[in-house]
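Hi Y.,

Following your request, here is the sequence exactly as I used it, all 444 residues.
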Amino acid sequence: MALRQPGGPAGDDATAADGAASAAGLGAASGNGGPAARKRRRPAKARMLQLFGPAFVAAVAYVDPGNVAANLTAGARYGYLLVWVLVLANAMAVLVQYLSAKLGIATGRSLPQLLAERLRPWPRRLFFGQAEVIAIATDLAEVIGGALALHLLFGLPLVAGGVITGLVSLGVLAVQTRRGQRSFELTITAMLVVITVGFVSGLVISPVSPAELLGGLAPRFQGVDSVLLAASMLGATVMPHAVYLHSSLTRDRHGVVTDPARQRHLIRATRWDVACALVVAGSVNIAMLVLAAANLRGVSGTDSIEGAHAAIAEYLGPTVGVVFAIGLLFSGLASTSVGAYAGAEIIYGFFKLHLPVLAVRAVTLIPSLVVLALAASPTWALVISQVILSFGIPFAVIPLVWLTGRRSVMGASVNAKATQIAAWAATALIVALNLALVYLTINP
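Below is the corresponding structure, written out as tokens. Let me know if you'd prefer a different format.
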């Protein structure tokens, strides 16, 4: 069983459907504004919604277990102080993911493919090596999250929970293999809905201060520790594997698009796809921080997922604790499935190898299980994985901004000057914060 690659039946069906959607959209736009034109415009909007999906898969990376730990810690320690950090982080994520998605549409190739074409053999192997290390580090955090959730819900040992998480992720990946890209997107989106309910439900019964929430939008810090926490929240927001993967997702969904008008239509739909998906993910992250700020401020032991869950169950009731653990479980399952998909795309992009999904899953899962068995604590392993991910950010984001700013690569879809300036500014901030995170972690 191997993951579907571009050019398969799913890609061809999607390409045909998107072509019809594009034609309908262009036809509606050229109408004279009469009843017939208005009748055509309504289906065109519905067809644009059918183009949504790739961004919701990528958005799972922004609500993975690593984000859960950081957001709950920020709210418990500092209340609403760092709300602005999540707003800024989400704005940068929207820009970066949009550029990755646009790259796949404009070129018909993924970011790993474009990099492989421009690198000599040895630099290509080295680049691939760091990308796979990043994939392993990503999977570590996500398998830990799933294992912790199974431990909290059923008392399973962490290693057993990690194995179950890996096996279930194989089932999710099988949806893409057997049913195609669209079915996989719908499956992950459904899991994202469960994650959202799990992490947001506590707000239904907990008081939130609107005034303090608005006050949290003002950028400020409260001591060195809040700076470190903000750096970890901002620096770990843009995940390297999501940057690599999003270009693959749009390539697989739309195929090679050569018609400029159709490219513009797909890019416009993608802009909305990214905005909607990351608004959902950003709102979930803010909800977790607000939940902790309103109910767990000053409570000890909330700097770990286990401790935060125990505090939520104590202060908000066992039902909310169970719902939260279910959200954590689906966060681990969805994010590790997406991470394995990203690992397969990295291998395919650099070496054009179609590996069986079991082999791809084993490449990242086995090291995660070893670390889970040997680590002194799951939280410690999560911290180490986030530090490793920090090293991979520049290798993904800098080439992305460079490529999307070159007309020879993007054609008419090249970044506008203002977009390119904003992209480089966001890149500089992301890289600086990740370097700061690494330094402050090593030299606390």
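Residues 58-442 form a domain with the Amino acid/polyamine transporter I fold (CATH 1.20.1740.10).

Thanks again,
Q.
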